[in-house]
Amino acid sequence: MRITTENTVGLVIDLQERLVPAMEDNELLVKNCGILIQGLQEFNLPLIVTQQYTKGLGETIEEIKSLIPTVGYFEKKDFSCFDVPEVVSVLQEKAAKNVIICGIESHVCVLQTAVDLKAAGYNPVVVMDCVSSRSFDNVDLAAERFRFEGIMMTSYESILFELTRSAGTPEFKAISKLVK
């Protein structure tokens, strides 16, 4: 199955001030998520941002927030973003089919969200170099679960070029610059 820009949204899960520093290789995570987000914006794809218990875990980190200043966030206490009615409303409003996912933690909020999206008939696409956990063991375990559940995994470079489709598109030059 090809992922195209039609009926596709990006979902940024819980990249927050008190969570990101605890993640394995967090600097690379932030860099990769930034590239993915900028790439999705080249295609004018809608972005959904969540924050888990903002009062305790802080705001979305500035490196990400600065890339999407006009996008607000949805507060959540449940681990799955699909349990947030406003997130589901946006998915329905945008007629989403494909949900490109980045964020943390891969074995908790990302996993539960992807499983719930799949069960509801969506096509979750987990960008594995744009997710992390406090230990790489948990990232690996999440990947095993994604495979078991039939959830697509990819890299930011792969999904951005898949959305681009051709070196002849207007987005190609911008995407090429981002992934270098």
Plain-language structure description:
This protein is of the alpha/beta class. It has one domain (8-179): Isochorismatase-like (Rossmann fold), CATH 3.40.50.850. Helix content is 44%, strand content 19%. It has a six-stranded parallel sheet with strand order 3-2-1-4-5-6. Strand 5, helix 6 (136-149) and strand 6 form a beta-alpha-beta unit. It is globular and about 45 Å long. The mean pLDDT is 96.
How do the strands and helices of this protein lay out in sequence?
Elements: E1 8-13, H1 26-42, E2 47-52, H2 54-57, H3 62-65, E3 74-76, H4 85-93, E4 98-104, H5 106-119, E5 123-132, H6 136-149, E6 152-154, H7 156-164, H8 172-179
Parallel strand pairs: 1-2, 1-4, 2-3, 4-5, 5-6
Helix pairs in contact: 1-8, 5-6, 7-8
Strand content: 15-25%
Ranges where pLDDT stays below 50 over 5 or more residues in a row are: none
Which descriptor suits the 3D outline? globular
In whole angstroms, the N-to-C terminal distance is: 26 Å
Mean pLDDT: 96
Category by helix and strand content: alpha/beta
- The tally of structural domains comes to 1
Regarding quaternary structure, what we see is single chain
Number of strands: 6
Please count the helical segments: 8
Order of helices and strands: EHEHHEHEHEHEHH
And the CATH topology? Rossmann fold
Helix content: 40-55%
CATH class descriptor name: Alpha Beta
Strand order of the largest sheet: 3-2-1-4-5-6
Per CATH, the architecture is 3-Layer(aba) Sandwich
Rg of Cα set: 15 Å
* Biggest beta sheet summary: 6 strands, parallel
What is the CATH H-level superfamily? Isochorismatase-like
